[in-house]
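Researcher: Please predict.
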Amino acid sequence: DFQLGTLTDIKRDEKRIVLGKIVDDNGDIVVNERELPYDYLVMAIGSVSNDFNTKGIKDHCIFLDSPSQAHRFHNSMMN
């Protein structure tokens, strides 16, 4: 499940995360701070892979910059 918000705390012993409140441009609260339980926590930080022009990288590496690349990686790992 996707929840929009800023991660403000991870309660590892309780397997819960805390997302900060969301405010609009006027400073009004749109969504209150909330705690969400998790079974497995996967954190993804936005970025774009860089091969630094190293020869052979593009031919032998699976980048994880898109959902299709992630599915390719998953399938490869499962195989």
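Model: Helices lie at 57-60, 67-78.
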